[in-house]
Amino acid sequence: LMNAAVAQGVELAQITQYCDSVSLCFSKGLGAPAGAVLAGRRAFVAEAWRARKLLGGGMRQAGVLAAAARVGLEHAEETLRRDHSNARRFAEGIQELNSPLCSVSLAAVETNIVMMNVGGGWLSPPELCEHLQAVSEEEVAETGRAVSVLVFPWSAHTVRAVWHRDVSAHDTELAKKKLEFVARKWQE
């Protein structure tokens, strides 16, 4: 929800105005270790509160999480814009790579998510993910770095990469270089 609002340059209320209820997670992009907020009609929230209590969902140190969520919300626009920019830079790197191993639709990169199309019969998405995560002696010897990139095999031909507040512009450049290394090795 926050990523969509920032990407579209609109208030959250504009997106959620037609919803009966909304849940907003404070982890990952906003940087809180855990936590979420639930909004909706009073009766709905009261029932959710009761169900949470019945299932043992109480926390003793909720203030600590609330403080982290508050900081995340105060810096959300700046943080999420940076995540979107890093995702875009990575996608542009895939396009510049011009490899039969993978491709991307830049038009589809609107937020912090990049969906890489894996093609050419070179590697399957799980295999590509394994190679991006693994560090070989050859890589260290050739690049002088040990870089492990964690991405997710999303479908039979797609890998999903997601940026959050703990992935910097420098990390993004390292991920691009790692993908270049893997693509070059498989094309050789």
TrEMBL record:
GO cellular component terms, semicolon-separated: cytosol
Q: Does the keyword Nucleotide-binding apply?
A: no
Checking Pfam families in the record gives:
Beta_elim_lyase
Give the GO biological process terms: glycine biosynthetic process; L-threonine catabolic process
What are the record keywords, sorted? Answer: Lyase, Pyridoxal phosphate
- Give TM segment ranges: none
GO: which molecular function terms? L-allo-threonine aldolase activity
* Cofactor(s) this protein cannot do without: pyridoxal 5'-phosphate
Q: Taking every annotated instance into account, which residue ranges of this chain make up the domain Aromatic amino acid beta-eliminating lyase/threonine aldolase?
A: 1-116
PANTHER family annotated for this entry? Answer: L-THREONINE ALDOLASE (PTHR48097:SF9), L-THREONINE ALDOLASE-RELATED (PTHR48097)
Per the record, the similarity remark reads:
Belongs to the threonine aldolase family.
What is the protein name given in its UniProt record? THA2 aldolase
